[in-house]
Automatic annotation (TrEMBL):
It catalyses: 2 GTP = 3',3'-c-di-GMP + 2 diphosphate. GO terms for biological process: cell adhesion involved in single-species biofilm formation; negative regulation of bacterial-type flagellum-dependent cell motility; phosphorelay signal transduction system. Residues 321-458 form the GGDEF domain. Keywords: Phosphoprotein. One of its GO terms (molecular function) is diguanylate cyclase activity. One of its GO terms (cellular component) is plasma membrane. The modification 4-aspartylphosphate is found at residue 53. It holds the Pfam family Response_reg. Residues 4-120 form the Response regulatory domain. Transmembrane segments: none annotated. Its EC number is 2.7.7.65. This is diguanylate cyclase.
Amino acid sequence: MSGKILVVDDVATNRIVMKVKLATACYDVLQADNGASAIKMAHEAQPDLILLDVLMPDMDGYTVCERLKADPETAHIPIIMITSLNDTEARVRGLSCGADEFLTKPVTELTLLARVRSLLRAHSRETDFPIPVAGAAAQGFAEGPAPFKLAQTDCVGLLLAEGGMGPGWANGLAGLIREDIRMFTLSQALEASKDQPEVFIIEADPRRLGSSLGILTDLRSRPATRQSRQIFILPQGETELAARALDLGADDVVFAPIAVEEMAVRLRAQLQRKRANDQWRSEVSDRLRQAVIDPLTGLYNRRFALGQLSNIAQEALKTHRTFAVLLLDFDHFKKINDAYGHAAGDKVLAETATLLRTRLRSLDVIARIGGEEFLMVLPDTDLDEARRVAERLRASIDDHPIALPHGKGSIPVTISIGLAIGGAAAPEASVSELLETADRALYAAKSEGRNQVSVGTVRSAA
């Protein structure tokens, strides 16, 4: 995994040692010898991660970290504090300033590289999507981000080892956070429940340390717990297992005994990241949906439907089957808008879309591809069946006048449909030719009196 790492330390020897370790692992290394230079380089170089000493003469690491995290241009950069300090107060202060990890010198190469890999991996997941949510409107996805509505369990799950940290430690932690703490057995944690904790704190069983790592992968493999954050507690000195846990996907690894004050800070950080990731995933899902869905009717839009049509056409040729392409257009739709207003016209489109969904199969593609023009693609459908479906749709809409609001009557609606058959029935016809055939058939239906179905013949197959 490549990455650009900024090493900040006022002692040249420390910087050189760190650079050698990181360069051996193929990381690009930048160096700063004081806090002011570190802040300047973070802005200019935008490193993927910062290794930050705490005790520096001009500006201590706490201050540097606070300034970097307070600046939107650098707040996203992960920071690992590396220092000779090893007391709970220093660790809590560093983590509270926004550091993603706090390591005490001397740091083994195994520990350092495992922490670096873990943070870079998490950072890359958060930055993989190229369009920032805040810029979605500018990119044309929507008017702006919708309010975040994803439900949160506000729960932390504890899987403590027998004879380990114990209920007293859990009670002490409960007094420092607002979330509920629930004790879990492994079988309870692996249940397919929607109310799983946002964060699991997992204490490795000292009698079965190696097998305890399997809990991490078990939780990651299940949909209900895949997005839950994981804090793994190991006995002191188990640095190799700690590195393996991080590489297996643990979000944080700590060593017992750990003060509840430090765990509370780490826990709050994981909860914040979990909720930020949940919001990010929810908004990305919304943006992707908006990119393929017509907002008025809830049907697919033209771009997505044409892609689906191409896929269906390719599959039909492989399996020597036929499929149907139907183009639907409303008769005299402009008169509806002129007589009843555009709001009524929109209601006609939306209710017709609903009717089409109820009359067609889930595997059929239904899309609004123009103002009042809909496209339907019916896989595994021959001409006789396609004609029956089209006639049924036409009759259903003819028999379903659209009610006006406030009891002001209803709008009679009719449609014309042009139909073409592709796949084995016309193996040489391209998707464009099939659409042109259905369009000519639609024009014929309009010319012959409207409110009817017309079947087109692909010219290359004629």
